[in-house]
Amino acid sequence: MSALSKVPGVDRSWPALRPVVADLAIAASVCAGGLTHEVVDAGDVGASLDAVDFVTCAGAAALILLRRRAPLTVLVVAVIAAVWSLIPDDGPGVLRVAAIIVLYTVASTSGRRTAWTAGAVTAAALYVTAAITSPGPWYDGENLELIAWAGVATAAGDAVRSRRAYTLARQERATALRDRAERAEHALEEEARRRVIEERMRIARELHDVMAHHIAVINVQAGVAAHLLRDNPTGAQEALTHVRRGAASVLDELSSILSVIRRPDEAASTTDPLPTLDDLRRLIADFAKVGLEIEWHTAGAPRPVAPTIGLAAYRIIQESLTNAHRYGRHQRATLRLTYERDALRIEILNDIDTDRPTGTRRGHGTVGMRERAAAVGGTIEIGPTADGQFRVHATLRTEQAEP
C-alpha cells in the first residue's frame, strides 16, 4: 500500500476511492448471491457448481466494475449477456442482475430521453427473449418481472440524476450569490476608500489654499518689521499690523474649516460661503496692502459661472498671486481674465527672481492648482517663459453654467 501511494498521478483520497469501493462491494454481493443461489438450486436438482457459474459471475463483476467508464457500451454488452443467459431455461441470473445495475448507471448519468430509451430497449430485449425461451405463457410473472425491474432501475437512476442536478444547481447558485456579494462588498470598500482619499485631498487643498496666502503675508511682513524695527518704527508697526491681521484671518478661516469638518451632516456644509470670482477685488486689495502690485485686465463680457468653476478659478488666482508675492522679483504681477463663449481663461505673469535656485516654485500649491483645474474638466500650464517670466495659464470650461 505504501508503494502504491508513491505512484504519481493517482488520486487516492476517499472521495475518489469511494465509487471504486462501492463497485467492488456491489460486484462481490452480486457474485456471492448468484453463487449461493446456484448452490441452493443445485442442491434441489442434485447438480453442483461448475466453471460456467464462476465465469458468468466473473463476467457480471466485470460489467459492474466497468459501468462507470462507458455506461452505454457496457449496457449493450450486459444486455447481450443477459439475453444469452435467458436462452437456456436454467441459465445463470447473475448476468440479468448485472444488466439491471448497468441500466441504473446509464439512467443516472445520461439525459432523460437516453435513460428511458435505454430502459425500454433493455426491458423489451429481456422480455421478448424470456417470452420466447420460457416454457410458460408470454404473460408469465417471471417474464413481466424483467420489465418491472428495468422500469424500477430506469426510474431510480433518473431520480438520482435529477436530484444530483438540482443539488449542483443550488450549489452553483449559492456560489454565484456568494461571489456577487463578495464583489459588491469589495466595490463598496473601494468606493469608501476612494471617497476618503478624495475628501482628504480636498481638505488638504482647502487648507493649503486658505493658509498659504496669509502665511506668506505674515512671513514677508515679519521680515519687513524685523528690518525696519530700529530705523523706522512706524514702518515696522505697520508691518506688524499686517502680521496681526493675517494671523487673525488664518485663525478665523482655520476655525471655519474645522467646524465644517466636524459636522456630521454633509448638507450643512453647503451653507458656508465659498469664495468666487466676485471676491477677486478684495483678494487683490489684500495683496496690494502687502506690497504686491497687480495689473488686472478683463476681456470679454463677464458673466456668472458655475460655483465649482468660480471656486477653482479663485483658488488658482490666489495661489498664483501668493507665489508671485513670495518668489517674484519686483513684486509685480499681471492678471488677465478672458471670458469666452464656452471657457474662462486665466493668465498670471510675474518676473522670475533669478537669485533664487530653480525648482523653488514647485510644491503642494502647484499640485493643488493642477488638481483643481482637472476636477472641473479644465487644463493648466505652469512654468517659465522665454522672456524671463513665470506664467500660469488655465482654461476652465464653462458651457455647463450657460443659461
From TrEMBL:
User: What is the reaction catalyzed?
Assistant: ATP + protein L-histidine = ADP + protein N-phospho-L-histidine
Q: Which UniProt keywords apply?
A: ATP-binding, Kinase, Nucleotide-binding, Phosphoprotein, Transferase, Two-component regulatory system
User: Which Enzyme Commission numbers does its entry carry?
Assistant: 2.7.13.3
Q: Report if keyword Phosphoprotein is assigned.
A: yes
Spell out the CDD domains in the cross-references.
Answer: HATPase_UhpB-NarQ-NarX-like
Q: Please list the GO terms describing molecular function.
A: ATP binding; phosphorelay sensor kinase activity; protein dimerization activity
Which residues does the UniProt record annotate as the domain Signal transduction histidine kinase subgroup 3 dimerisation and phosphoacceptor?
Answer: 199-265
Gene Ontology CC terms, in alphabetical order: membrane
Name of the protein this chain belongs to = histidine kinase
Q: Does the keyword Metal-binding apply?
A: no
Kindly name one Pfam family recorded for this protein. Answer: HisKA_3
Q: Give the DUF7134 domain ranges.
A: 14-164
EC class name: transferase
